[in-house]
Amino acid sequence: MRNVADLARAGFEITRQPVTEVDFEVHHAMARHGYLRDLVAADSDSAVFLETLCSATNGAGVVIGTRTRRPPDGTEPAAPAADGPTAEPPRQRDGGWVFHRTTSPNPTFIYESAQTFEGLIAVDPAASEVCEWHGLAVRDLVREIADAAASLVGAPLLSLQCPVQLPTIVKTRNHDLRTRKEVASPCASLAVRFAIALRDASAAARFDLADRFRELCEKHGYGFWLADTRPGHRQGNWFEVCHADGQFSPLYQGDLRSRQRIGTCLPVTFVGPARIGSTHAIVSFLQRYPQVGVVGCAATTLSDVAFVHLQLAIHGVAADRLGRILGKLLGEPSTPARPDRLLRELFKRLGLPPDPDGPGTSPQDPTGDYQTFTGPAFAYRPGQMPDSLAVWVSWEIARQHQGLAAPLECLYRALDQIAPAVPVAGAPAVSTASTVPAGELATVEYLICRATEQSVLRGKAKLALPRSVLRCFSASGGEPPASKLCAALEEAWKAHVDRSGVDGVSELTVAWRESWLGHWTYS
User: Fold this and answer.
1) ∠377-297-242 over CA atoms, to 5°?
2) Rounded distance, CA 144 to CA 439, Å?
3) Distance between the two ends of the chain, CA-based, in angstroms?
4) Strand, coil or helix: 68
């Protein structure tokens, strides 16, 4: 019965779409305050995205936007060639690269009604910077997650994210619940969060997945949490299964150089029709190269198209050399865009031989028609993880011409209003030069925005604010400054949205805990 319903839904999706292809943009840029705000605020129809994914870490960021119509200026994005897609030369924008292409969606990739298995695995929660062994550990962990989804339960991997905020820290005095106190975790930690769709929602399938991840985490000393699915526990509530020991994983002790800090981040985005096993195929290929690690990721499905974004760290390769070789490779008209072919050629030119004992290539590669968008290479910049405050926001409004620009612009204005003078770290103690509005310091570390069939725009984001913003809110009255900040921001955000004339507003919420957001959330 479920298969018949999915088939009917797929047919409806196909008939209601005016075109059978999805236009998309991929922006690889240096992480900076206001990049997304400036992008979506551009006064042009071509800047309006139907659905959006944004992520930033290690000094580099990605913005992915989809459309289901052609740009209004008449320009057509390049279509894949008959014998396979070729790599697109990048276009420069604000110190980054922009790629604009078209791909076919997979309308049979149905998962909205499926139950999900959501987990969070901490690799090294106490790390203040990313080392080479972290990249190898995250790469291998992502492959294990993708393999469990594809081979153990035959289900799609719905979302993937690294780094992420760990669950809220709960403290009590002598286990007395009357002294219970919740403290927000650092804004981002070296951990991987994932969600797997479960067509078979049986308890046996959940136990099989949980046992596999528990054994893996116990072997490595990782922390492991499962989403708490008990009644009254919404997304963002977690149940701890394994406690992280905070030690160097015994499986990565062989080479002392792996303790060194990474030097370069290479953003790579893979795009194609959403299919089971695509992420597993990509990361399995990367495992053939011992010098290549994954230090960040953001993967999801937008408009029935899979977007798998990875940040690669290539040991011993400087950013300038990597940039020169990559630029020359992408400038050649015959460079293939398939993930394995493009990366194999890039690694070959970098002098990186594959491991002959590494995992082989599957004869049925689900990424055979995927496109790959690579570069530029960025020098690694450690994040201020302990010094940042995570603020979660969510919204639900009617779909409109401005798209994401309307709620985002109002949010930034609200930030400037509630905290107009935030101390800047490292600035001299001078009255005006050492303070700026909070909106100029806010970083969008993660954002997902979707358009539903009911012409509704729904989104969720995690902002990173410097903890110095809390100085604008006193701790009097028993309410912590973080709660006062969120309450003031939510009230100001609603006021700015009302004045802007945005239609169909049904939800605008702000919280320092993800589970305190509105009645729904999106991963």
Assistant:
1) 140
2) 39
3) 27
4) coil
Instruction: Evaluate whether residue 521 is within a structural domain.
Output: no
Helices and strands counted in the chain (H then E): 9, 23
SS (H, E, C) 463-496: EEEEHHHHHHCCCHHHCCHHHHHHHHHHHHHHHH
Q: Which CATH number goes with the domain that contains 137?
A: 3.30.70
Residue 74, pLDDT > 70, answer: no
Is residue 157 in a domain? Answer: yes
pLDDT digits 0-9 by tens, 97-114: 999 898 888 766 655 445
Q: Is residue 127 within 8 Å of 190, Cβ to Cβ?
A: yes
For residue 178, pLDDT beyond 80: no
Region at 59 (left for phi over 0; alpha for psi -120 to 50; beta for the rest): left
Positive or negative, the Cα torsion across 109, 110, 114, 118? Answer: positive
Instruction: Quickly tell me which residue has 């081979």 as its tokens.
Output: 151
Across-strand partners of 464?
A: 390, 443
Residues 248, 119 share a domain: yes
The one-letter amino acid code at 164 reads V
State how far the alpha carbon of 183 is from the alpha carbons of 42, 117, 228, 387, 507, in Å.
38, 26, 18, 14, 26
- State the DSSP code for 132: H
Structural domain boundaries enclosing 195: 115-256
The torsion angles phi and psi of 339, rounded to 5 degrees, stand at: -55, -50
What three-state secondary structure class fits 77? coil
Closest CA to 56 of 412, 462, 437, 391: 462
Burial class, 446, CB count within 10 angstroms (exposed 0-12 / middle 13-18 / buried 19+)? buried
Q: What is the CA radius of gyration of the chain?
A: 23
Asked whether residue 394 carries a pLDDT value surpassing 60, the answer given is yes
Nearest to 413 by CA among 345, 317, 353, 497: 497
Query: Is 522 part of any domain?
Result: no
- Residue whose structure tokens are 């604010």: 465
Q: Which residues contact 339 (CB under 8 A, 6 or more apart)?
A: 270, 281, 282, 285, 367, 370, 372
8 Å CB contact between 95 and 35: no
pTM: 0.89
- 212 exposure class (CB count in 10 Å sphere: 0-12, 13-18, 19+): middle
